[in-house]
Amino acid sequence: MEEHEDDVRRKQSDVKQLRSRTPVPLFNEHRKILVADDKYLNLLQTKEILEELRVYVEVVCVADGQSAIDEIANSDMKTFVLILLDQYMPLKTGLQALKEIKNLYRDANVIMPKTAFISGYIDRDLRRKGKKLGVKDFL
Fold first, then answer.
1. What's the CA gap between 56 and 41, in Å, rounded?
2. Which domain holds residue 11?
3. What is the CATH number of the domain that holds 120?
4. Global pTM value
5. 133 exposed, middle or buried (CB, 10 Å; 0-12, 13-18, 19+)?
């Protein structure tokens, strides 16, 4: 178990280096996209795609579901315009994280941003549960 926790901490450290902020604004105010995936390569590719599309927002990358919850809880929730979650992550799955994130937004009386699951395999049950929680797309 300790080895798994060390691996998660190492991934979190690597992921923090992926933060990006482009000075050209897409909105009048500072906005963010949260990307949660335990695979570093997926985070890197997602960040690069968003930058190539000239999506001028801060891309916040985290390596697990609990870090996604913490990032939302410790930030100005109104700044997030999109949340992309992998379903199969350590500590908390995308679905577990989404439930808690949705509760954070509800409790703060803030409109929840668009959400999507990013995963190599999305079964029918995950689609149903995700739609029930407000997931807009599955990538």
1. 21
2. 2-22+39-138
3. 3.40.50.2300
4. 0.72
5. middle
